[in-house]
Amino acid sequence: MFSPVDDIKSRLDIVDIIQEYVPLKMAGANLKGLCPFHREKTPSFMVHRGRQMWHCFGCNLGGDMFTFIQKIENIEFPEALEVLAKKANVELKREDPQLRSERQRMRELLSASAQWFAVQLQGAQGAEALRYLKETRVLIPDTLEEWLLGYAPKGWEELTRFLRAKGYRDQEMVNAGMALAGRARGVYDRFRDRIMFPLRDHHGAIVGFTGRQLHENKEEGGKYVNTPETLLYHKRAVLFGLDKAKQDIRAQGIALVVEGQMDVISLWQAGIR
Ligand SMILES: [Zn+2]
């Protein structure tokens, strides 16, 4: 069965949608115009009719017709879905999961990712990471479980493939900070060959990850890679372990702040909470 998103995309042309806001001119196989998202005098805003995508080479924004409507109308995905469904004459069922707020979808995506990383840690690909955590870091299974530590495998599309099978769109993975948009062939995993620490807000909901390199590899970014700023993850607002510590902090009136995630977890395991 067609999802409403596919249904809408098959009935509408991105060129018509964008032309309601931005005058476009033919430029080879594509169309171009002045970018509505940054000031410019020469057009660097491109629309690809064949791929039904847009991209601005000036401000580097881009996406499909849904992301365009979200940006230009300053609305979230569920509202953009309603706007375009109306244009396309597609009826949306109220209980459609795509209508749930973008935040809720992102929370579920991150939670599913964390569970999947934890499963990988216990699997064949995670053997070395698990050995590191148990032997070098002396963490016990209860601790791994409590903090939901995981492992992101080496491949380029491991998590991406899993999330796609769960019904998430590539754009949602990018928005959640779990995937990066490649130039040539779609999206790929942001975290590869890393031990994964879920980051939680003070309610305990997963809002992002820190990934620690298992093998030093300069080409693969730094030793630690964090989720970028997203709808849910704001670096300044997240203090690792606060969701677990806040009651004790309130009760005892003191808080111990240490440098790394591993320090927090080791202290927690040692009974310092
Ligand atoms: Zn632009």
UniProtKB/TrEMBL annotation:
InterPro entries according to UniProt: DNA_primase_core_N_sf (IPR037068), DNA_primase_DnaG (IPR006295), DNA_primase_Znf_CHC2 (IPR036977), DNAG_N (IPR013264), DnaG_primase (IPR050219), Znf_CHC2 (IPR002694)
Cited SUPFAM superfamilies: DNA primase core, Zinc beta-ribbon
Alphabetical list of Pfam families matching this protein: DNAG_N, Zn_ribbon_DnaG
Keywords: DNA replication, DNA-binding, DNA-directed RNA polymerase, Magnesium, Metal-binding, Nucleotidyltransferase, Primosome, Transcription, Transferase, Zinc, Zinc-finger
GO molecular function: DNA binding; DNA-directed RNA polymerase activity; zinc ion binding
Cofactor section: Zn(2+)
NCBIfam families named in the record: dnaG (TIGR01391)
Name listed for the protein in its UniProt record: DNA primase
Biological source species: Candidatus Uhrbacteria bacterium RIFCSPLOWO2_02_FULL_49_11
